[in-house]
Write a structure and sequence with these properties.
single chain, 126 residues, 5 helices
Length: 126
Amino acid sequence: MRVMQIVFQTAILFGFSALGAVIQKAANLQIPGSIIGMLLLFLFLRAGWIKPVWIKEGSSFLLNYLTLLFVPGTVGLVQYLHLFEGRGALSLAAALISTFFVMAASSLLAEKSLSSKREEGEMNSG
């Protein structure tokens, strides 16, 4: 039963990605379809049209195996090592700076999410 639930919820997530790809091609947008799909999923979640519990197991499953999804991209970089020759310090700086920005943005979003949940809880109890 749990396997079917994970498959169904993962299919919902991939459906949003596919829908984003269709929109991207139809509108000839420069934004990747997967990003458009993620924005659509976010909007549906915020609007309440999709409940987080409907995709919780599937998204948790994908997050558990997220590192495996990066392996093909990392292996693909090996083909382009010549582009990084002599630019080790620049590559390291770019990696550190981008990591900092991702961590900062993630922490700000998490803090905002937690504070809004706290406020929501206070409003419901008061």
